[in-house]
Amino acid sequence: MTRIMRYALAALLIGTVCGCRYSLPPGFVKVDPIWDTRVRAVSAEGAAITLRVETNPENGDLAFWEKAIMTRLVEFRGYRLADRREIKHGDETPGVQMTFDYQRDGIDYTYVVNVMVKGRKVYCIEIAGEKTDIAPQLTAISDAVRKWPLS
Amino acid sequence: MRSRPQILALIGFTWLTTIPLLLGCAYYGKMQAMRAAKELAEPPATADDAPTAGVAMERPLARLAADKGVDSAAPAAQRMLIYTGRLGMAVADIEASVQATQRLADEVGGYMLAMSANSITIRVPAKQFFPILERLKALGQTLSKNVTAQDVTDEYTDLQLRLKNAEALRDRLVAILEKAANVKDTLEVERELNRVREEIERIKGRIAQLDKLIAFSTIEVSFTQAQDQPAKIRRPETPFPWLDQLGVETVLGIRG
């Protein structure tokens, strides 16, 4: 019984530590991930952030994923690229941040995707929200998610 | 002092000797240009042929390109091409797209040539032509794309030869003018000299015009509202289905 309690305590500790690893921007709370995302956080206004970790095939590099994402969103889905910049995630992992404008049902949205490649994993951090709501918070959100661990 | 018939005979003699010479030069020049273009188009098959390739770069076309300050590594250095591109795009925000296109041109050292509410024509350095076309695709959905390259190599070579010959003729006429015996002869030679000078200016003007057209490529972009266009169903299957989950709907949990 003591052993079971020790395991439970250890699991609780690990869970707590893991949960705190993802620093959230002001006004966001962590919620259960949906679809295949690993982390999800939402704001009271309805903006959301997700982290997705996928398998990176052999020879898959940053340029490949940037082009794949760009093609999917711009060519097939009607997103408009508003900004594109190279970033350093956590001050070491190179990545690309693409900011898109998107319109759906007459509402203007801003959608940001940060893509990073590390070994056999590709990481996508997505940020989305109504353009007017998210615009003032975008810098703070970007700064916060850039510290998220890639593991 | 020479008599009038002597002057006229001298002009006639000059024409008779110059015209075959001009025709001969033009033909020789054209043959040289064609040979050079052929050699440039066919790289050496073996290592032994390598020196020949080096010599080929010294052939008239390559030398001409080098004289004009064109990068010899670029295809335009071998053939003198004037690029023009026309894009039709469906975009969410036409005004923003027009401005973004102008910014792109400014960014690479180009400029805006014409602009309207839903279209823009830009001119960009020739080296930036294809990169800019690629970057413009990110503005929205490409509905049409048309790229043309006008080869002006032959015209350029001909102009250079005609200029050289016309300048030689001008020099000879100046020499004749100095020997003219009376006012009438002087006027006749001067009339001919003026005609040749005008021809030289015309050739120089056309060469300058071609230089500008070769150095800067033109891109015309017409924008239409994305919603007004029928959706293009073109979604090839991907081995990465998660790419289709990316986007506003998934992140925000929007259904439908």
Structural write-up:
The complex is a heterodimer of chains A (151) and B (256). Helix content of chain A is 30%, strand content 40%. Chain A is built from four helices and seven strands, in the order αβββαββββαα. Chain A has helices at 2-20, 62-75, 131-134, 138-145, and strands at 28-31, 39-43, 48-55, 80-89, 93-104, 107-118, 121-130. Chain A has a seven-stranded antiparallel β-sheet with strand order 1-2-3-7-6-5-4, sandwiched between helices. In chain A, strand 6 and strand 7 (121-130) form a beta hairpin. The longest helix of chain A is centred in the first third of the chain and has 19 residues, at 2-20. Chain A is globular and about 60 Å long. The two termini of chain A are 33 Å apart. In chain A, 32% of the residues are buried. The model of chain A is unreliable at 15-19 (pLDDT under 50). With 256 residues, chain B is of the alpha+beta class. Chain B is built from nine helices and five strands. A five-stranded mixed β-sheet of chain B has the order 2-3-5-1-4. In chain B, helix 1 runs antiparallel to helix 7 and helix 7 runs antiparallel to helix 8. The model of chain B is unreliable at 21-26 and 28-74 (pLDDT under 50). The interface between A and B is medium-sized, with 37 and 29 residues.
